[in-house]
């Protein structure tokens, strides 16, 4: 059995990517790192809601969504790390702010529940488009990670849509808060669909995010209209997340995420 | 649903070769730590066993990407096979094809219901909101049930309550 067949028939992930023979090509690894950072940062933000959500069911829901995203991050970072002999933990805990390539949407502070739902609606729709396209990647590992993730993020869309409708069509006050939430997050939408320099030159392997924009825009327009809300008309933020440009709050988030691993390297329990 | 039908044919690939089948049957005694009534064979998590001399390779697939039970399952497989004399065991995770509840065995579905967890029911998709079909209460059998929370105590479950017997129960989500 030759090497490429082996990879295709047993696309391996997380812990066992590291001890398998799968090694990501350099450019593919650079691309996977950005996607992994997106999932990791949003997973951490969602984890901050545990014990703080408006009701117990939402502690569980946001925690579970975050857990799925953490699984995607682990697979993607482990795969990226095979190119540089680094583990998922090396990449998650021992890089500094400007080395993270996550889009700025994902690091936005949680705000109120409506702002979190707005961010999650945007994120889940983006992930569905991305992973659907990436599941056709010619890279067997990326394709396997995406096909698995797609089923999970599809379920996440449902959660965000239900809350968007409930808040948008609820009381005047909930409507106002949901509209505010969309306004807060909307400037960070544009960056998701700009040219990604790490996807350049990876035709068939990576997804050009520009190809995902039209479907996203029509989908979210329909959902927002059905919820009695309006899409904000605000100019896009400058962006730069893929190049390591992040806002101040990201540093605080990262400090909390990394402190244990840095204080006690190699700690296990 | 189309992704599922393509993978149905490889649902439970119990090996034909005698030495591999013996190992498969041992590995198939390992249970899910969160749903201990189900074996990893019932769940469709056990995918493949391969033997090369003294080296044994067992392939499992995670239910959900972030499911922490996978680590415990891996350790249990190594433990069970080790006790039977297989010392060189390599447990690998495979992601493709992605796990689906269609791989759950009929025996598994029955055991799940007896344990008090409603077995997965295919969902209608395509509307504004994906609507679940009626979920039967595993305690009293009533179809008069209500979803309490779309997310539950583990990645694979949602929380329901029966409107007739008033009992809450876990539902193993269709996936």
How would you characterize this protein structure?
- The complex is a heterodimer of chains A (about 270) and B (about 180).
- Chain A is built from twelve helices and no strands.
- Chain A is mainly alpha-helical.
- In chain A, helix 3 runs antiparallel to helix 4 (about 55-80), helix 7 crosses helix 9 (about 170-185) and helix 7 runs antiparallel to helix 11.
- The model of chain A is unreliable at about 1-15 (pLDDT under 50).
- Chain B is an alpha/beta fold.
- Chain B has five helices and seven strands.
- Chain B has helices spanning about 1-5, 20-25, 40-45, 70-85, 105-115, and strands at about 45-50, 55-60, 90-95, 115-120, 145-150, 155-160, 170.
- The interface of A and B includes residues 57, 68, 75 and 147 of A.
Biggest β-sheet description of chain A: none
Strand content of chain B: 15-25%
What's the helical proportion of residues of chain A?
A: 55-70%
N→C terminal distance of chain A: 39 Å
How much β-strand is present in the residues of chain A?
under 5%
Oligomer: heterodimer
Structural class estimated from helices and strands of chain A: mainly alpha
Order of helices and strands of chain A: HHHHHHHHHHHH
Q: Low-confidence runs of chain A (pLDDT<50, min 5 residues)?
A: 1-13
DSSP strand count of chain B: 7
SSE succession of chain B: HHHEEHEHEEEE
Number of helices of chain A: 12
Q: Kindly, what is the distance between the CA atoms of the first and last residues of chain B, rounded to a whole number of angstroms?
A: 10 Å
Overall 3D geometry of chain B? elongated
């Amino acid at each position: 059995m030759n090497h490429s067949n082996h990879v295709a028939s047993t696309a391996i992930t997380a812990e066992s990517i590291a001890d398998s023979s799968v090694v990501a090509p350099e450019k593919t690894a650079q691309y996977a790192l950005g996607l992994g950072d997106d999932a990791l940062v949003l997973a951490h933000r969602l984890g901050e809601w545990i014990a703080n959500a408006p009701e117990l069911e939402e502690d569980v829901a946001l925690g579970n969504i975050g857990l799925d995203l953490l699984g995607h991050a682990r697979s993607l970072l482990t795969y990226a790390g095979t190119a540089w002999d680094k583990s998922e933990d090396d990449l998650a805990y021992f890089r500094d702010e400007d080395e993270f390539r996550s889009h700025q949407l994902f690091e936005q502070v949680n705000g109120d529940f409506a702002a979190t739902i707005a961010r999650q609606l945007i994120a889940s729709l983006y992930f569905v488009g991305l992973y659907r396209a990436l599941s056709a990647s010619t890279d067997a590992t990326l394709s396997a990670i995406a096909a698995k993730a797609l089923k999970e993020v599809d379920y996440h869309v449902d959660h965000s849509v239900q809350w968007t409708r409930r808040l948008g069509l609820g009381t005047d006050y909930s409507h106002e808060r949901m509209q505010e939430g969309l306004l807060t997050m909307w400037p960070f939408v544009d960056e998701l669909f700009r040219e990604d320099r790490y996807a350049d030159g990876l035709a068939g392997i990576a997804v050009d995010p520009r190809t995902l924009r039209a479907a996203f825009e029509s989908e979210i327009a329909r959902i927002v209209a059905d919820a009695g809300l309006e899409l904000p008309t605000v100019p896009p933020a400058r962006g730069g997340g893929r190049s390591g440009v992040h806002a101040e709050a990201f540093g605080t988030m990262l400090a909390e995420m990394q402190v244990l691993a840095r204080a006690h390297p190699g700690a296990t329990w | 649903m189309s992704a599922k039908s393509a993978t149905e044919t490889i649902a439970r690939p119990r090996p034909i070769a005698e030495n591999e089948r013996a190992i498969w049957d041992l590995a198939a005694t390992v249970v899910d730590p969160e749903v201990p009534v189900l074996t990893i064979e019932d769940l469709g998590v056990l995918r493949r066993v391969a033997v090369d001399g003294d080296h044994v390779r067992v392939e499992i697939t995670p239910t959900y990407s972030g499911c922490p039970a996978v680590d415990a399952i891996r350790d249990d497989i190594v433990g069970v096979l080790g006790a039977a004399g297989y010392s060189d065991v390599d447990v690998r995770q495979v992601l493709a094809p992605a796990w689906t509840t269609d791989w759950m065995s009929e025996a598994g579905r029955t055991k799940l219901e007896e344990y008090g967890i409603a077995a997965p029911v295919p969902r209608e998709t395509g509307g504004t909101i994906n609507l679940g079909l009626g979920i039967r209460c595993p305690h009293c059998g009533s179809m008069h049930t209500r979803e309490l929370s779309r997310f539950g105590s583990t990645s694979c479950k949602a929380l329901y309550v029966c409107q007739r017997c008033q009992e809450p129960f876990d539902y193993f989500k269709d996936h």
